[in-house]
Fold:
Amino acid sequence: MPGALPNNLEAGIILDDMMAEADCLQLSAYFSGLDSEELDSIREHMFKKSVARGEVIIFEGEPATAIYIVISGVVKVFKTSTDGKEQIIYLARPGDSFNDVPVFGGGLNLASAEAIMQVNLCGIKKDELKAILLENPKLAENVLKVLSQRVEQMVSLVEDLSFRRVTGRVAKILLENAEDTNGQRHRLTQQEMAAMAGTAREMIGRSLKLLEDEGKVRLERNRIVITDKKALGEIAGVST
Amino acid sequence: MAKIPEIDRNKCNGCGLCVGVCSCQALVLVDNTVEVREKRECHQCTRWCTMCEMVCPTGAIQCPFEVVTEE
Structure:
């Protein structure tokens, strides 16, 4: 028989598949509070997908066909502008879902999703999801909660995307933390800068890149070199 | 001055996400805790991508920058 596997290997793969499905159901907020009978009925509608690092799972603008839940790995959910700039919406880690909004809304994929490492996913096709929701009121309630969280995430992102203001705050942080008159050098992580600027870590990376593109700083391996202190001060709204 | 990602072994939960995203394969799990395999391997990056720090769910990895003004 083509593709036949040794019994022990086949058993191992089946066991892995079962564990993946179980993990998927346990990890996701969608299935919280459902009893085993309900979970079993949902499990019948699921498919699994393994994706290699760098592979794009869904493309922005294409018809939304399925909702995905990350079992292992990390998926980057992002939008791309016409001039190629990338905006990360969020990183989906184990238990997180993506592409749920357009699937429930009946539209096109709102964003693209790319595996940034080897990723295992489980998914439910759009048509099957509707049938499952009709049969499981608890699942429908969970969906409302997940989508509410998604709206909260988007509102937070909109807040962060008052982009220039964040860049100004980052510029000020850099000036304040550049080596002092005693030659003392301070070290900052992007997470710390995010906390200081009151924004998301991802925004710090984008702000630093913007400042570098504008020639105000140079990013090195573990150094941020201020190359135009005066211009940085103007962005920060402080005199230098 | 740190030249490699700093790892807090007490915070690391061994999830391995950082190992998966590391573009120069410099990170490895040893006894369920992440370690930098070889300093020189991490130095293959021309600049810190900081993806390991970004994906770490527990804040166990830090890639600090020092801020300096060009002479």
User: Anything to note?
Assistant: The longest strand of chain A covers residues 66-72. The interface with chain B takes residues 53, 73-74, 91, 93-94, 116-118, 174, 177-179, 185-192, 201-202, 205, 218-227, 229 of chain A (CB under 8 Å).
